[in-house]
Write a structure and sequence with these properties.
The chain is of the alpha+beta class. 39% of the residues lie in helices and 22% in strands. It has eight helices and ten strands. Helix 5 packs antiparallel against helix 6 and helix 6 crosses helix 7. The longest helix is centred in the middle third of the chain and has 22 residues.
C-alpha cells in the first residue's frame, strides 16, 4: 500500500468520504494552488501513523525508547532501533523498509568516513547528510519522499546529542522529542518533565522515556516484548536492549506506578507561613 492510499483511507475513516487529489499528488514536484506538495504531506502522515518513538538527553547519556508493533499474534515485532556506528544509533517511526534503507546508507557513510579520515563521523554531520538525501526525494520527478522519521542519538566531543530528521529534509537538535502515533501525549509528558533530565541517572532517563511511551501506547501497555531501548554515554559506548533485556526497565516502570505519591509537606508549610 502506498503512502497516498494510507492517507486516503485515514481521510475516509474520519470524514466518511474519500479525498482525491489526483491532479496535484501524482508526483512530488507539482504544487497545488494552495502552495502545498501533497506527497510530502503523505510522507509526514506515514510518520504519524508509525508506532511512537521517544528520545531524551541528559548531561551524560542519550536514550531512545520505542514501541514495537507486531503484524499479528503469530508474527514477530518489527525492529525500531538500529545501531549505525559504535557511537550512533537511530529510532524510526513510519515505513520500516524506508528506515532500513536509510540506516544502511548511514552505516556506509560512517564506514567511508572512518576509512578515509581514520576518525568517526560526527553525529551532526551524518544527520545533515541523511537529511540532504531525504530532501532529494522531494524535488525530483520519478522519486518519492521517504515515509519515515529518524531520531538520531550520538556522542560528540564528550557530549550526548539528539537530532530529528524529517521526511521533508529538515533536521533539528532537541533536548527531548517524540514522533509517531499519538506522540502528542508523549511530548506533553516530556515538556512537563524535561527540566529533570540534565541531572538524571541512566535508569531515571530510561524511566522517563518509558513513561512517555506509556502515555501514547494503546491501553498504556508497555512490556518487554513491545519495548526497545537504545542507550549511549558521553564516551560513545552504545547499547541496545530488546525483549528480555528490557525487563529491568519494565520493572522500574511498574515500581514507579505502584509507588505512593510524594508527600506535600513542604508546600503545606509554605502556605502556612504565607
Amino acid at each position: 500500500m502506498c503512502i497516498r492510499d494510507r492517507y486516503q483511507r485515514r481521510v475516509r475513516g474520519s470524514t466518511g468520504r474519500t479525498m482525491f487529489r489526483n491532479q496535484y499528488d501524482t508526483d512530488c514536484i507539482t504544487w497545488s494552488p494552495q502552495g502545498r506538495i501533497h506527497q510530502i504531506e503523505y510522507a509526514e502522515e506515514a510518520v504519524k501513523q508509525g508506532s511512537c518513538c521517544v528520545g531524551l538527553v541528559s548531561n551524560t547519556h542519550a536514550v531512545i525508547t520505542s514501541l514495537k508493533r507486531s503484524a499479528s499474534e503469530l508474527g514477530s515485532y518489527q525492529q525500531k532501533v538500529f545501531k549505525i556506528d559504535d557511537h550512533i544509533g537511530i529510532g524510526i517511526a513510519g515505513l520500516t523498509p524506508d528506515g532500513r534503507v536509510l540506516s544502511r546508507y548511514m552505516r556506509n557513510e560512517c564506514l567511508n568516513h572512518q576509512f578515509v579520515y581514520g576518525a568517526p563521523l560526527s553525529v551532526a554531520r551524518l544527520t545533515n547528510q541523511v537529511a540532504d538525501k531525504a530532501q532529494i526525494g522531494t524535488q525530483r520527478s520519478g522519486k518519492r519522499p521517504y515515509g519515515v522519521g529518524l531520531l538520531v542519538v550520538g556522542a560528540e566531543e564528550g557530549k550526548p546529542r539528539l537530532f530529528y530528521a524529517a521526511p521533508t529534509g529538515l533536521f533539528d537538535e532537541y533536548k527531548a522529542h517524540a514522533i509517531g502515533a499519538r506522540s502528542q501525549a508523549a511530548r506533553t509528558y516530556l515538556e512537563r518533565t524535561y527540566e529533570q533530565y540534565p541531572e538524571a541517572s541512566i535508569d531515571e532517563l530510561v524511566l522517563h522515556g518509558a513513561k512517555a511511551l506509556r502515555e501514547s501506547a494503546a491501553d498504556h501497555d508497555v512490556n518487554c516484548k513491545n519495548l526497545s531501548v537504545c542507550v549511549i554515554d558521553v564516551n560513545g559506548n552504545l547499547k541496545t536492549y530488546d525483549d528480555e533485556a528490557c525487563q529491568p526497565f519494565v520493572d522500574l516502570l511498574k515500581a514507579s506506578e505502584d509507588a505512593p505519591p510524594a508527600p506535600a509537606e513542604e508546600s503545606t508549610q509554605a502556605m502556612e507561613t504565607e
